[in-house]
TrEMBL record:
Key word Transmembrane helix present: yes
Protein name (Swiss-Prot/TrEMBL): Uncharacterized protein
Membrane topology classification: Multi-pass membrane protein
Principal subcellular localization: membrane
Family per record: Belongs to the purine-cytosine permease (2.A.39) family.
Keyword annotations: Membrane, Transmembrane, Transmembrane helix, Transport
One Pfam family it belongs to: Transp_cyt_pur
Transmembrane domains' residue ranges: 63-86, 98-120, 132-153, 173-190, 202-223, 243-268, 280-304, 324-345, 410-429, 449-468
Any GO molecular function: transmembrane transporter activity
Length: 475
């Protein structure tokens, strides 16, 4: 390890000996408490870079734990919930939902895998590496939107979890109370650092994925209701637009992991080959997402054509369909539903973990306090960032991660980000807004091409602007 790297790590870590003597003498007790929490696995380092000499050298163990994390995070109800929208919202038949859904999440996995490469190389959280693109100030806005996105997924998880518990209790447990239970369980994990987080996620991965796979068996008696036919209520143009929108939706299921992917690789050795990191992230997200996505599409298609399951979906959405599918198994089916419920807790823990570091990016003084004292109380950004990272795939001096005067000004990335947002606005198809270009590619509801215009606009604009910025400011 170079002398510069060691010096940078010492200067940036607030709990160093120099800081103890000169800056936090009155807080020796808190410092000792922080060290004790650190020894127990509680996260206390905040957004500081993890230098190579502080990382784990057990590469096999790291691969196993991160693989377990991806199985637990992707192989559960969070991923399943979006795949149900193909048949139940967009009215697509089995063939269209399978093709659009699997292709969409395949490309999303590629984006997430690419973003994860920054973890071992930098030792920095994903949003910290974004400083090298957006600069010191603009990245705060990007981090804020990242938090909003995490909150959005957590809300979806809480609602889905509420539906599951309500289904398990046969409606005796109110939906609101069920949602509160999931939120409370998620917040119990706020003290855990990345080492404990990885262990917990690995522990949950097998029962969660196993319960989801049991759904293939419990639903087998209803496969006769599967149909290739699209909804008869929609015309050809509308179905075409809905197929495109579903494809984009499924892309976002896995691509949004790119906003936090490298957070889970900061303990890997710096010289870990890129192909290993890329493969672990790609297959770690693609395989479990495919397994739960396919069964979600199958059971969703059955619900579109089988009246009892359709009524269950109308009553409790995904939770109602899953309850109906496991109903023949009695108490055993309810137990499997509870295991699947744990996947939502797992996802919320991951959202909370990364959101805390994004919050520290916004308000830097928070990085100097114990992480366990606060937590999150709470698709276009990831697409912009993916395009910009791809445009600037080069070597960085990661020792300047916390040097405001040495980081880029961020003008090029900020303007490219704005262009991407403009592309998203004219290409999105949502209930509150249908862009002019979206209207031209679909029928009544248009077709959602926001993601692709967002990446295209920002990816085309950025290289030239970055060249100008580098020539003008030298950084």
């Amino acid at each position: 390890m170079s002398a510069e790297e060691k010096s940078s790590d010492i200067n940036s870590h607030f709990s160093s000996d120099v800081d103890e003597k000169d800056a936090i003498k009155p807080y020796v007790f808190l410092k000792n408490l922080s060290d004790k929490l650190d020894s127990l696995g509680v996260e206390v380092t905040g957004i500081e870079r993890i230098s190579p000499y502080r990382r784990s050298q057990n590469i096999f163990k790291q691969f196993i734990t991160v693989a377990g994390l991806w199985i637990s995070g992707c192989g559960g109800l969070t991923s399943m919930s979006s795949f149900y929208l193909g048949p139940m919202l967009f009215g697509l038949g089995l063939k269209k939902t399978l093709i659009a859904g699997m292709l969409g999440q395949f490309f999303g996995c590629l984006a997430a895998a690419y973003c994860s490469l920054m973890g071992p190389r930098s030792g920095c959280r994903q949003m910290v590496t974004a400083r090298f693109l957006f600069g010191w100030w603009t990245v705060k806005f990007v981090a804020f939107i990242g938090i909003v996105g995490g909150v959005g997924w957590s809300v979806v998880n809480c609602i889905a979890g509420g539906q599951i518990l309500s289904s398990v209790s046969d409606g005796r447990l109110p939906l609101v109370a069920s949602i509160v239970i999931l939120a409370a369980l998620s917040l119990l994990n706020i003290d855990w650092g990345i080492r404990i987080l990885l262990k917990i996620e690995t522990f949950l991965s097998i029962p969660v994925l196993g319960a989801c796979l049991m759904l293939y068996i419990s639903s087998a008696s209803k496969y006769k209701y599967l149909s290739l036919a699209d909804s008869p209520d929609e015309d050809f143009a509308t179905i075409k637009g809905n197929t495109l929108s579903f494809f984009t939706l499924c892309y976002s299921i896995t691509s949004t992991w790119g906003a936090v992917a490298s957070d889970y690789y900061i303990l890997f050795p710096q010289d870990t080959p890129n192909i290993q990191i890329f493969s672990l992230t790609f297959f770690g997200t693609f395989i479990p997402t495919s397994l739960v996505g396919i069964i979600a599409i199958l059971t969703g298609n059955i619900a579109m054509n089988y009246e009892p399951w359709s009524e269950a979906y109308e009553s409790l959405s995904m939770g109602g369909v899953l309850g109906a599918a496991f109903e023949p198994w009695g108490g055993g089916g309810k137990f499997l539903l509870v295991l699947m419920f744990l996947s939502l807790v797992s996802n919320n823990v991951m959202n909370t973990y990364s959101a805390v570091f994004q919050l520290q990016i916004i308000a830097l003084p928070l990085a100097r306090w114990f992480r366990h004292l606060y937590t999150k109380e709470l698709e276009q950004v990831d697409s912009d960032s993916s395009a910009l990272i791809a445009a600037k795939h080069c070597n960085y001096n990661f020792n300047i991660w916390n040097s405001k005067d040495r980081l880029t000004q961020g003008f090029a990335a900020s303007f490219a980000f704005a262009c991407g947002a403009a592309g998203a606005a004219i290409g999105m198809s949502q209930t509150y807004w249908i862009g002019p270009l979206a209207k031209d590619v679909g029928g009544l509801y248009g077709g959602d091409i926001a993601m692709w215009l967002c990446m295209g606009f920002s990816g085309v604009v950025y290289p030239g602007l970055r060249y100008w910025e580098l020539k003008t400011y030298g950084r």
